[in-house]
Specification:
Alpha-Beta Plaits, alpha+beta, 4 strands, 130 residues, two-stranded antiparallel ribbon, 3 helices
Amino acid sequence: HDFYSFMAAGSTAKTTVRNLYDIRICRDPQDPVYAIHVTGNGFLYNMVRILSGTLLYAGLGKILPEDIPGILAARDRRQAGKTLPAHGLTLEAVFYPMNGRIETLDGESLPPAWTEGEAKAALKGEAHGT
């Protein structure tokens, strides 16, 4: 999908198209903190923070889950939720699909995230999609 609406101003990304394979919202009943796990082939500047803010808006009833396709199609940052603060944001893992596949948090195998050329470029230090 084109995630232009979920990218902060000032990004230098050459393309705003990304693949999200998995989004999970988790919470331990004993803990007031929610965890949002996102698996994809690349992320735009502040994309996960904006996605999280949009999910928060949906949870608060400010938007409906059915509004998300329209937000994507609008290619308008103002249509998405607020950018949540970075406090608490943690990068847990980076997966390099050297075997051509990656897995979700529950072990489901996904199709290749990158072509072989993209994987080689990433290993040389060139950022994917930026």
